[in-house]
Amino acid sequence: SPGVENRMKRTSLIFEKPHTVVIKEEPLPAPGTGEVLIKTIFSAVSAGSELLIYRGLMPSGLPADMTIKALSKPFRYPLKYGYASVGEVVAVGSGIDQQWRGRQVFCFHPHESHYTATIEDIMVLPAAVDPKEALFLPNMESAVNFLMDGRPAIGERVCVFGQGIVGLLTTALLAQYPLRQLVTFDRYSARRRASMDAGADIALDPEDPASTDALPDAGDPNVTAGLADLVFELSGNPQALNQAIQVAGFGGRIVLGSWYGRQEARLDLGGRFHRNRIQLISSQVSTLAPEFSGRWSKNRRLNVAWEMIRRIKPADFITHRYDIRQAEQAFQLLDERPEEAIQMVLTYE
Length: 349
Hints:
single chain; 25% helix; 10 helices; seven-stranded mixed beta sheet
């Protein structure tokens, strides 16, 4: 009832300052006209963008996200952040059919136990998609976007730098193509093992000096041994971009999907890059590439991402679950022992 809801509180995760997350109790919001109230079941932690925020490395002056209403304000502490929330509709505002109550929905929203959203800002979970699987929608949409921008072709040799969750999902999608060879790079052995499970032919340590100098020959005498047709840089490490240039062959394409925040990438563009006509392609999921905008929309791309979730079932990549009140412990682990985590999930008991 409204009286009970007014006495309830919601739990919110707030990035207070670098290396400090706090949990705050706030009044439970009531859904307004055209809104629903959602009780969160799970939310997913982005080990890439959220770790940059935790470390104070996000760029200033830019909105946290240009397309997500809940993240439209500029990066500034204190900050609510997060963009993968699955919950249940527990109340509806005026103008909303009562049949919305009890539906499980996905929303691009920060980490908090309850929140209001308009019908336009939520998606009902498709049939046969578990709430834990639904958490992967934003990163799966990113992976779909990377492949759309990279356009892998039959028989190509493809390399992927970074096997965090975005890299693993990208690898899993690429493994469905009839490629000649799929090679992945990551510093952490657990991620390399997950990469092989996702369908990589070879998983290498980029810190091994021999890894990028002597990639295995794909067996084609007309192509320089070890060089790739297509490279995805998804590691979040600015130094990896030079390694991506190093393994790209003549006319090779490099899809740059990493977000570096305020970290600078120092590039060596005076050698192989210039003479080999290598292409650097910026890829970011907030928009569609202009060449797709005539026939594609964000909804069409999201529908493809849902289908890929049903096909790949990525919940096996979840390595850690924390109650939201343990968020400080969760981010300390990501910051200090990133090799232990692939996908971290917050729960709301």
